[in-house]
Write a structure and sequence with these properties.
The protein is mainly alpha-helical and 405 residues long. It is built from 17 helices and no strands. The C terminus is likely disordered.
């Protein structure tokens, strides 16, 4: 009989793809139609997305604690229902206060249903097979933008942005609510199973509480590394298209390069997973994080071939990020308090990244182009890689700071 944990992993492969597609990627498609109808400016609409990101980050830690104590089944089911309701409510807004309130709700829903919570569940159900389970989920969810940006665009053309949002709300509800309610279980022991489907209990693993984790240097090195890498990722996500257009590249090439980054993210995950199992997890994570700097450095060059190099290195770095954070937390702190520790890191990194697009825009306006922005981001990427490498030097300290019974 197939181990039940794989059912959860494949369910997440679908729900994470739909969740990211509807709650994250559809926003960019609806920005211009919203502005045209409602007369809002880009700063006003962008603030809604930033609010959702900030709320999601602030709630990452309490969401993780809930999963550690009670499991994720009803949190993710309720979050899916709330997300569908909020996307439907989005289709009805006519004022900025209502719009911002809706995106507070979308931020709450996102904190309950996306990667952080899904990885917490997988950390409990898998140990040796954890990298493969997470790879299954992230490979599928990596296609969220590829699927949902064209889908949302087609729906917007056919139904208007309000009708498109309503259809996407129904898609989110129909696909994610039943799967989260019917498939997720708290832990394998509840079904008389052991992690990975083993015939006997696994050997005891190090288990460190969130309180013990934050008292150690490793946590803060990891927080610094992932905060800086998230800052880079969010700044590039917001400014890549205008940066390439400003440098004189044709619109068709810009779209192709942006799309290629998504494909390279999948390649990065496929390469990162086996390497992280055979070599030093910290070392491989630091090298892949350093690929951010390589890719951004290529953007400083004027040759067209450098754009493809950017897509390759930046995409691999961006694709490995979610896997490396999940793997490092599980490796150092164990699975019992995974949600709390991962949520604490998530709060720090997400809140930091929220301000990246605004800061990059301010520096661009100050200097008149994106050159200074790129140099700052290259520096941030190198510091991120060094921080994760430094964390490896104290990566086993958790055993000395105290474990949670």
């Amino acid at each position: 009989m197939t181990y039940y944990g794989w059912r959860i992993a494949w369910a997440f492969a679908l729900t994470q793809t739909v969740g990211y597609g509807v709650l994250t990627y559809a926003f960019g498609v609806f920005v211009k139609p919203m502005e045209a109808e409602l007369g809002w400016g880009r700063a006003e609409t962008s603030l809604g997305f930033s609010i959702a990101l900030l709320v999601s980050g602030l709630l990452a830690f309490p969401a993780g604690r809930v999963v550690d104590r009670h499991g994720a089944r009803w949190l993710m089911t309720g979050g899916s229902a709330l997300g569908a309701l909020m996307v439907w409510a989005w289709s009805l807004v006519h004022s900025l206060p209502a719009f911002y309130l809706v995106f507070v709700g979308i931020g709450i829903a996102s904190s309950a249903v996306l990667y952080s919570v899904a990885f917490t569940v997988l950390a409990v159900w898998f140990r040796l097979s954890r990298p493969r389970a997470m790879l299954i989920v992230t490979l599928a969810a990596g296609l969220a933008s590829t699927i949902f940006i064209p889908l949302a665009s087609w729906l917007e053309q056919a139904l208007g942005w309000r009708g498109a949002a309503q259809v996407l709300a129904l898609v989110l509800a129909v696909t994610t609510i039943p799967l989260h309610a019917l498939v997720i279980r708290r832990r394998p022991q509840d079904l008389g199973l052991y992690p990975d489907g083993a015939d006997s209990p696994p050997p005891p693993a190090q288990q460190v509480s969130a309180g013990a984790a934050v008292r150690g240097a490793t946590f803060w090195w990891l927080a610094l590394g992932f905060s800086l890498s998230s800052l880079v990722s969010m700044a590039v996500a917001a400014h890549l298209v205008p940066l390439l257009v400003e440098r004189g590249h044709p619109a068709a090439l810009v779209a192709t390069i942006a799309g290629s980054v998504g494909v390279m993210q999948l390649l990065g995950r496929i390469i990162y997973t086996p390497l992280s199992q055979r070599l030093s997890l910290f070392g491989v994570s630091a090298v892949f994080m350093g690929f951010f700097a390589v890719g951004l450095g290529l953007l400083l060059m004027e040759q067209g071939w450098a754009l493809w190099g950017f897509a390759l290195f930046y995409g691999m770095a961006n694709g490995s990020g979610s896997l490396s954070k999940a793997a490092l937390v599980a490796e150092v702190y164990g699975s019992r308090h995974y949600g709390s520790v991962s949520g604490g890191l998530g709060t720090i990194t997400t809140v930091t990244a929220t301000f990246a697009p605004l800061g990059a825009g301010f520096l661009h306006d100050l200097r008149g182009d994106y050159t200074a922005v790129l140099w700052v981001l290259i520096g941030a990427a190198l510091l991120a890689a060094l921080a994760v490498w430094q964390a490896s030097r104290s990566g086993r300290e958790a055993a000395l700071t105290g474990s949670a019974a």
